[in-house]
Design goal:
alpha+beta, AsnC-type_HTH_dom (chains A, B), homodimer, sequence-specific DNA binding (chains A, B), transcription regulation (chains A, B), 153 residues, 2 domains, DNA-binding, Arc Repressor Mutant, subunit A, Alpha-Beta Plaits, transcription (chains A, B)
DNA sequence: ACTCATTCTGAAAAATATTCTAATTACAAT
DNA sequence: ATTGTAATTAGAATATTTTTCAGAATGAGT
């Protein structure tokens, strides 16, 4: 789907604050409320906007420990890969998982309460999965930047 | 701030779809609209909910290339670290940046159009920063899971 | 039992989202 | 240039939702 400059400005603003009203958007972009409304609906219909979400502060819900975990599989046959990915998706501690290039096969972003909870996760969940070869954990000392907004301007 | 089960259910739902109406929430949780309204306002006031955002599909806005880039600094004096982090924050291609444990100092999640754009980014922006020792890039072959929602139940 | 603070309900008011009709614009084909 | 067609827009109406308000229920501490 093709996006003009107005679409991009709308997306830019919605990515930063999806609670902004159509009225405010319309005055900032010098368009009618209806024009804004129709454009947003079109962006939603075409799945340019995939969803609207509330972002929760991890520390406020007792999830202050973030880890990047790299994983190697023992085999790479299609069945193993499919099975592994299905199982990973089920784990709620895993916020993100990517199949990647390089020495390891996967990178996972994991969020838990603390180091102890991570140990539990590793022992009881992750290393219990079949086909896992080795893992390597990288702990987050401090977040420097964290955004979901893609720059479009 | 302390959260009861109702708060957690509200957060759970808002993390998945922040456009859900208070009326719908109220019927699903068997509370009045006002009760829901007040609870959400409290969650916002106390920054449990940090913001509401629209999520945009990267491919739809021509950003199909994601990379994890690990960085080592040449020195770790406070001034260097501060300066480096300030500069990283400015780069719109960098969606996330974490100070981490292990062999490298930082992990960055970078989103660009394609490999060529990534090369441009590396040459013109990243390696132009002072104090950078070495970098190592890991390319995303395929996303397996990607969510912003923290499981609270 | 009484007070205080918190959370709740239901109704009213204010603001916003959505629908509708018509006018305008953009653009391709002639 | 001009016609026709579709897409986009504006403005008014209607429908929904958010927000405010007053009063009732709840619970902890005295």
């Amino acid at each position: 789907m093709s996006l003009d400059e107005i679409d991009k400005k709308i997306l830019q603003k919605l990515q930063n604050d999806s609670k902004i009203t159509n009225k405010k958007l319309s005055s900032e972009l010098n368009l009618s409320v209806t024009a804004i409304f129709e454009r947003i609906k079109r962006l939603e219909r075409n799945r340019v906007i995939s969803r609207y979400v509330a972002l929760v502060k991890p520390a406020e819900v007792d999830r202050s420990f973030m880890v990047f975990c790299q994983i190697k599989l023992v085999q790479h046959s299609k069945n193993y890969v499919i099975k592994f990915e299905e199982e990973i998706i089920q784990l709620h501690e895993v916020l993100e998982c990517y199949h990647v290039s390089g020495e390891y096969d996967y990178i996972l972003k994991i969020l838990v309460k603390d180091m102890e909870a991570y140990r539990e996760f590793l022992l009881n969940k992750l290393t219990n999965l079949n086909h896992i070869g080795s893992t390597q954990s990288t702990f987050i000392i401090s977040p420097v930047k964290s955004t979901t907004a893609i720059d479009l301007l």
